[in-house]
């Protein structure tokens, strides 16, 4: 069968599978074929670092049973067919059975989780098939996917450039047409920034919207599983499957999940879109500004109302983020101690074993953040750093509450200050941290946010960011659908 | 409880002369395992004694990606304990991470509570001084936390084994104010606390099984001084008496240091029960920086006022109230009350017998005598005791109604302890029911008189001292079943006729 599965939306594909027009294993085989053709694996783009084609194909073929049950019925929510036969890629810090879960780190080399993350279970229950684990900055610390123990991932649109990070492997896999849907994780922009760099859609849900059970923790109060889609609809479909209360995650929310795809054709007439001036600084490259303003104009043309707003504490987001995230990380990564699983390097006594294992197992960026986090939590520094940072976090939340309370439905900003940079171009950690300047706020405040393609600069994609009030992913998707529709091919020019 | 906690220096065991110039100041930190079926943050069993690492799952093994989910039952038991300790229960408390590296701490942090504990400001009354003044020990705080695993250093040569069955078991830590002034008071505090927690039914409170552990903070100061001296923390005690002995030993050591003009170093001391001495711990625990911060994986613990009120309302009867009630309702003396309220189970057993049988004093005597002896001999708890209160009450009924003799009752009881059979069954089977029927008794008397005609004649002629002899023969003939009182009456009637 010579069907171009990469050009088929996930919804279209699953309908075709459910209707017995496409074999359930066909798209998964197509995904592996495409992966081979574009070189998504270790010796190519290095987007997918762990895969087992035989196993995934067997799993897909076994879905035939569900196809038979599907005859004569549409694919309603919870049917086990929402993603029937749809290949998906999963970031390497999300626990899967049988494939390794290494977080892009030597310290977990060879580690296979005996349990599965809730998000992976939900995808599989919906009929999706995991075709690979994707590369990432070690323990999700980074904005370029250069800091992986398994080597850097290359941007499919320009292999000399980074795909962004930390979920760069998933973004690249979607951009390269290997999958339409991939899971990533967000702590400060790790889905939205690579989505912007790779010209795909990337969603960071409201904190608590999607279960974190099985997501290896980086900074627990900021972490959230996110999703990449080749289109807004692919992402919305995946979100419908992923969202919802999980009794295994005490921070997951018992808030009803809206049917996000139902908003696909809803008008944005009268929708108030806030344009926060702090996200359009003087230093923003003119062509970035121009692409974003073009997107805003497209929304206006559809009837949306664009309003200048202010989020006055925005410049504090990066300093706050780089206190809170390393602090939590220093504690979350303590379990990688060589005692029970993962790497163990013998040393002189217990302390020697700890030091040798952790020194050999963690890369320099992870080590830097553990040291930073340990420092800010230390006696005598806690009040000055961690406590103060949490107070400022409250101010940031106040900014968003004020804007959304003033009648603004959704905010629009650039996702990143620049398009994808060259591999190796950013060596100063602080310069790298500034990549999160527009994205970290949503994690600190907990609101949902997503990046959608709004154009290109010299062939490199530019992402526009939408942010909505807590649990209003429905409004966010409505704006995203409208933007995608309005921009059409412009989004990729 | 009276005068269990003497306050005069002269009462202290082993008080060397040097200690008389100093006063001991003690505060206790008690870790209590809550009686839940499952662990604090996962569904693993809390059973004691399971094979190593069998009660574990990805969560309590701290596998990457796992998250804690709070056990609601643990919250309920912790709240009940806090209320029983007269604390203020906070409707919002916050879990915090206590960070340190140790192989039996799989997450690299312990989930505990730090600056926003579940409850603060309570009080435990531990008795009265020799002079009769009440001693109330302040409770600083009660907070929830999880246990670590267990490091086993003596099982394998050159290696330490880790058992994570305890990892994640729910605990409360009960921290007292430094309100105790002697080892005896510390002992009284612990015994009172254990009794209270048993009544509250929140823990098995067994030091042997590790469900109750005690660390003691102790300092010495010159008598009359009001400022606290430098304290040390004493650990590694495995019995209440061990705590008392350790406190005495550490206090003597501190007094020695102070008497020589030295200063006490703030450090952790380990009690060596076999040698009866304390020695400094190798690692300096006091120098740890635990880098506490709020646990981001658990939302703040918010308790509804109505829920706390319900727990308070449903609190079981506590020892003091029960002592008062037993004294009033059953007209028991102080000794009996103390004994019958020592544990909630023995009190419930006694009440079961007393209520059904009616004679509280008889019930008390049996429970404190035969029942306790049988329990001690059998080595079982009263919960597993085969003689249920209703059966014992019926046995006492049989005695009162003259259907069995007191000595027969003891034999019947001994059989009930073995078999769990009902007293009537045993009495009948063993032929121990007394015969009170005059016709049957008259038959035996007739036989005895006709078989001993000489004595019968002498008795009839007024030789009353033969009555005991004849009653004895009747009893023998009846194989002990004859009611001796009635036999006496019947014989006397014949003599008088």
Strand-helix topology:
The complex is a heterodimer of chains A (493) and B (497).
Chain A (H helix, E strand, L loop, with lengths): L9 H9 L7 H13 L9 E3 L2 H9 L2 H7 L16 E5 L26 H8 L3 E6 L33 H8 L5 E6 L5 H7 L2 E4 L19 E6 L2 H11 L29 E5 L9 H16 L3 E5 L7 H16 L16 H13 L2 H14 L5 H23 L4 E5 L14 H5 L6 H6 L3 E9 L2 E8 L5 H15 L6
Parallel strand pairs in A: 2-3, 2-4, 7-8, 7-9
Antiparallel strand pairs in A: 1-3, 4-6, 5-6, 5-10, 9-11, 10-11
Helix pairs in contact in A: 2-3, 6-7, 9-16, 10-12, 10-13
Chain B lengths: L21 E12 L38 H13 L3 E2 L2 E2 L1 E5 L9 E5 L5 E10 L5 E13 L3 E7 L2 E5 L6 E7 L6 H18 L11 E11 L9 E4 L4 H20 L8 E5 L4 E4 L12 E2 L6 E2 L2 H9 L5 H12 L3 H7 L3 H14 L2 H19 L10 H12 L5 H14 L3 H7 L8 H14 L1 H8 L6 H11 L6 H13 L1
Parallel strand pairs in B: 12-13
Antiparallel strand pairs in B: 1-10, 1-11, 2-6, 3-16, 4-5, 4-15, 6-7, 7-10, 8-9, 11-12, 13-14
Helix pairs in contact in B: 2-3, 5-6, 7-8, 7-9, 9-10, 12-14, 12-15, 14-15
Account of the protein in words:
Chain A is of the alpha/beta class and 493 residues long. Chain A contains 16 helices and 11 strands. In chain A, 37% of the residues lie in helices and 13% in strands. An 11-stranded mixed sheet of chain A has the order 1-3-2-4-6-5-10-11-9-7-8, sandwiched between helices. Chain B has helices at 72-84, 183-200, 240-259, 305-313, 319-330, 334-340, 344-357, 360-378, 389-400, 406-419, 423-429, 438-451, 453-460, 467-477, 484-496, and strands spanning 22-33, 88-89, 92-93, 95-99, 109-113, 119-128, 134-146, 150-156, 159-163, 170-176, 212-222, 232-235, 268-272, 277-280, 293-294, 301-302. Chain B is built from 15 helices and 16 strands. In chain B, strands 2-6-7-10-1-11-12-13-14 form a 9-stranded mixed sheet. In chain B, strands 5-4-15 form a 3-stranded antiparallel sheet, with no helix packed on it. Chain B has a two-stranded antiparallel ribbon with strand order 3-16. Helix content of chain B is 38%, strand content 19%. Chain B is elongated, with a radius of gyration of 31 Å. Chains A and B meet through helix 10 of A and loops of B.
